[in-house]
Q: What sequence folds into this?
């Protein structure tokens, strides 16, 4: 390799201005993401606000229904991944190689681990809304279509997908929403105290 052949380096071996700019931009973006991590409710409110702005924009422009349909399907896929366990119990049923969800009352409690964590779900959903919003600025993405058909098809797809997911949850007995650690009641102290 000759001098300057590696990615992001200029002829003199130093990082190029463009590489440094995008590297710094990525660091700032990651810093803001890291700072937003503990504020779950605020993050989701901002995302819902962006979604509302997007819907108003599509309604006022009376177009970009294909983009909206694609965004809906993308969000549905993210939601299904959010509801699914990281290790699918149907695949673990045949082999005893790894951990599985408890199926009986006397088995050990294992917390539900999602295939798609909440933060990544939020991040991907927000990026999807921003990409869809950007697409509404280009007429090439405004493909004429009879939108009620897309709405009906999306509702059918949502119902079928959620029915399958709920059946999966019932069959393998897992609930994707847990709130904190389980609390067990101990035996009541009915004995006498011993005085020394």
A:
């Amino acid at each position: 390799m000759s001098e300057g052949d590696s990615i992001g380096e200029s002829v003199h071996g130093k990082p190029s201005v463009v590489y440094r700019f995008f590297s710094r931009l990525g660091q700032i973006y990651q810093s803001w993401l890291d700072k937003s991590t503990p504020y779950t409710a605020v993050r989701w409110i901002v995302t819902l606000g962006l979604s509302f702005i997007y819907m108003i924009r599509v309604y006022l422009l009376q177009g970009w229904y294909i983009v909206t349909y694609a965004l809906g399907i993308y969000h549905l896929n993210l939601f299904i991944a959010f509801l699914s366990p990281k290790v699918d119990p149907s695949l673990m049923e045949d082999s005893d190689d790894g951990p599985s969800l408890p199926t009986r009352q006397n088995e050990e409690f294992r917390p539900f681990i999602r295939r798609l964590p909440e933060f990544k779900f939020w991040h991907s959903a927000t990026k999807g809304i921003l990409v869809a919003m950007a697409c509404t600025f280009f007429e090439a993405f405004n493909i004429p279509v009879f939108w009620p058909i897309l709405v009906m098809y999306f509702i059918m797809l949502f119902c079928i997908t959620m029915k399958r997911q709920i059946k999966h949850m019932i069959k393998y007995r897992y609930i994707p929403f847990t709130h904190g650690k389980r609390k067990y009641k101990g035996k009541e102290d009915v004995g006498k105290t011993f005085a020394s």
About this structure: The radius of gyration is 25 Å.
